[in-house]
Design a protein that fits this description.
Chain B: InterPro entries: CheC-like_sf (IPR028976), CheX-like_dom (IPR028051). The complex is a heterotrimer of chains A (127), B (156) and C (688). Chain A is of the alpha/beta class. Chain A is built from 5 helices and 5 strands. Chain A has a single domain, classed as Response regulator (Rossmann fold, 3-Layer(aba) Sandwich). Chain A has a 5-stranded parallel sheet, sandwiched between helices. In chain A, α2 runs parallel beside α3. The radius of gyration of chain A is 13 Å and the shape is globular. The model of chain A has no long low-confidence stretch (mean pLDDT 87). By secondary structure, chain B is of the alpha+beta class. Chain B has a single domain, classed as Chemotaxis protein chec (3-Layer(aba) Sandwich). The model of chain B has no long low-confidence stretch (mean pLDDT 81). The chains are: A alpha/beta (127), B alpha+beta (156), C alpha+beta (688). Chains in contact: A-B, A-C, B-C. At the A-C interface, α4 of A face α8 and α9 of C.
Chain lengths: 127, 156, 688
Amino acid sequence: MSLHNILSMMIVDDSMIIRNRIARLVAGPTLPHINIAGLAANGEMAVELARDSRPDLITMDLTMPLLDGEACIERIIDFLPETKILVVSALADKATALRAIKKGASGFLHKPFTDEELLDSLLELID
Amino acid sequence: MRHELRPEDIEVFSEAITHFFNTCTGETANVRSAYLIEHGPAVLWNDFNGLIEISGAYTGSVCFSAPRALLSHVLLKMGESVFTDDRHADIVGEIANTLSGRARRHFGEGLSIAPPRLLNYGEQSLPNISGNLPYAIPLGWHGYEASLVVQLAPGP
Amino acid sequence: MKTLLASLFGKYRDLVLAIGIFLLLDAGVSAINIYTSRQIEADASRINAAGLLRTYAQQLTKGLLTLEMDLRNGQRTQSSLAEISEARLGFDDARLALEKKLAQPSALPLIEPESLRQHAQELLASVVRTWEPIDREVGPLIVNADPDPESAARAVQKAVTRNNRLTQQADDLSETLTEMANKKTSTVRLIQAIAISLAFLNFAFILFKFIGRLAASDRQTAAAREETERILGSVREGLFLLTSKRTVGGQRSQSLDRIFGQQLQPGADFLAFLGRLTSTANAEAARDYIDLLFNKKMKQSLLEQLNPLVEIELLAEQRTKKSPSYLTFEFNQIRENGQVVALLVTVFDVSQKVRLEHQLAGAEARADNEIALLLGILDHNPHEVADFLSRARDTLQLINGELQSIQPLRQPYPQMVNRIARIVHGLKGEAATLGCSSISRAAHAFEDILQPLRGRNDLAGDDLIPVAVALSTLLSEIVKVEAVVKRVQHFAGGKSDAPPPDPLGDSLRRIEQYALRVAEDLNKQVRFEAAVPRLDHLPPALASVLREAVPQLVRNAIAHGIEAPADRLRHGKPATGLVRVELTSEADGTLTMTIHDDGCGLSVEQLRGVLIERELYSPAEVAALSDAQVIATLFEAGVSSLDSAHQHAGRGDGLAVVKAALRDLGGRLRVNSRANSHTRFIMQIKPA
């Protein structure tokens, strides 16, 4: 997936609490070492940050101000085709998930999620 | 189209909220018996109120209303160590978001759901819709009490 | 390689072993053939050598005789001497060769018995013994170029005297050797014959086994194919394989065409087919989803959540009357070596389910719009209806207050549910009496919601959400009727403000209407009689009894007491049953209200059965109850003598409502009944 061994990851969510929670879980012992490359609170910030930090993994909310998650995925995959994106969203309908996957996301996790659910989803992504 | 609200249309929200507490805090929230809010528009009596407004096949709103102390405790359970107003508002917004996602899955695509917004204590009351009375679903968690106010009617 | 070995020693082991043995037998036969030809050669040279012995012995004798004659005739002796010498050397050579050949022990004692060889050796030895004296005489004779006739004569004599014996012995030897060779040949032939027959047997075994196995496997394949066809022919779901080219596979269930309402040919382009079948949005979602399914990197867990082809609606122009209108598709990946090679597609017809859901929703909507439901109230006094409506609203608000304030404990929830059930049942009765059928229907639906909750001890808050919803529905129904009543009053121009001149008569007429409607609903015939004094105004206690208790008791009388017309005729009663309401007042102001019916009466035995059947009491408890006690259970909540709930009876709360209402008024309720004759409920109300 990447030339260097240590994976980097970006967290995109308009809720700071969710961003913090994901960051804390990623830092825990379950996952291999992952660098948090950046946190973004909206889609535009996420695209900028992704261009600079070129993360291997991204967790992505869908309902966000400025640029929504779907458009954001499309833009990022355009210049980072190898990056794995996990959609973490409360929008639980299939059409949304299918659209996100079609645009390049690699996984889908419904909010609210437990610690295990997030870790499992990330592990599946890294495999 | 359906005209009457069915029990499962209300149960969806109580399930969503208990599911949120179970998954995010690992502790069960107890739903008490639901009742109707009878006199006038529903007054919000808690510190933080997250509202989602619904239009389309059904119109109305769903509001999660909780005291500050409950939310602080939730933040603590989720591993937060900062307890500013912002964080409290953030978590109420997140809960409202969860409700909106669940509502969309239950009622289908024909529903348009506005992004959650916060109401300030004492400043506003729920927008009233004619006809049906709003349902209040009290929720006990860790000795605190929060409420879910569901006000839905078939759309015009 | 490994797999080849595995199959060599696995399923085909017998066969491989048999072929191995066959080859071994063949090799054996060949080896024997080679050995035999060598032996025949060796035997021939031995027989030949034995013949030479005889020939040279003869030649020597003849040589000696020639020599003697030459000597006697004084002729030259060179040629006879040479002949003698040649014969002697020849004999020795043959002898030595034979000795050498016979000295070797037999390589295969089975084929060339040792005894025969030793016998031949002995024969040869006797030949040699006969020969040696001749040889001794001949030896010195031939070293001399000019042999003396004496020695020649001696030699001749020796040779002649021994010649016969020698010939005989050489013949014997020759015969023995021939015999040996013959014996050997026949033994080898036998062995050969056995080996060849073994090889034949083996070949037959192989053939039999192999063909048998082929036939068995053919049979299995045929059976499997038949089974597959049977399965594909009988499953109700549509089954087919979708190839990675998105085309339909060859094997498909027969139900497929019925489910689609048209042919889906093997090899057809599935996505194009889907595009004709359902909306563009659905078809596009399906294409995306199928693309994901063929992507081997996609996680199964993710895919399971994403299937968009669930309960999809088929395009109207694609449906015939009989064909399904809603389908659900399920996809299962078929993987080979990690690659997704095809999808197993299962198609379910979910039209029935979706249609039922729609019908249910439609029925609710219809009920909502049926103005006819509201028209019933026009037969009644708007004041009474308005009065009932406002009381009903107050009652429901009380329930709501209870829902709001109740503590979430195990005990209060069931108690509250029972309380609500009683109140709602009372409302149902009143609403029906006043022609508010939409309200009585909502109340009946409310009871349906409450029924499964009753008797449960593990009620939690979220179990009660349907109660709140039913409460809301009932309340909104009441609000709707209230609005209608208000407009009716308005329409009447406020003239209806004057109080009714005969309130008791009005009430009883209302009850009579109700009684006739109940009877009609239950296919019974009823005559309603009232024997009451005329009253200018109704005492509040009496008004309450007329509102709540009397309708309940009248309904009971018709539902439980009065029999169906045919049953009545069979019991020698008139087809039309009688329900009679009497009111008497005593000097002290005590009112006695009697509801009498000439129906089947209370059956204590049947009641006992009901108590046990509904598990309200154990058989032992029921046995211990006196008849009076059994009758008394009628007044407990949850007991009804009818089997199933319909709108007019059977929930088992009617009498409990009556009892509660009377208790509130400080009254008494008695019952008196005789089987097949009558039931009479007597209510006594003391003045306040």
